[in-house]
Amino acid sequence: MNPKLRILVTGGAGFIGSNLVRMLISQGHTVLNVDCLTYAGNLNSLAEISNDDNYHFSQVDITDEDAVASAINDFQPTTIMHLAAESHVDRSIDGPRQFIETNVIGTMNCLDASLKYWQRLTDVGLKENFRFLHVSTDEVYGSLGSEGLFTETTPYAPHSPYSASKASSDHLARAWHDTYGLPVLVTNCSNNYGPYQFPEKLIPVVILKCLNGQPIPVYGKGENIRDWLYVEDHCQALIDVALRGQVGETYNIGGNNEQTNLELVTTLCQLLDELSPETNPQNDSGSPRTASGRAVGGEGHASLITFVTDRPGHDLRYAIDASKIARELNWKPQENFQSGFRKTVQWYLENESWWQNILSGEYQLERQGLSSDSAASAR
Question: According to a count of CB atoms within 10 Å of the terminal CB, is the N or C end of the chain lower?
Answer without folding.
Answer: N
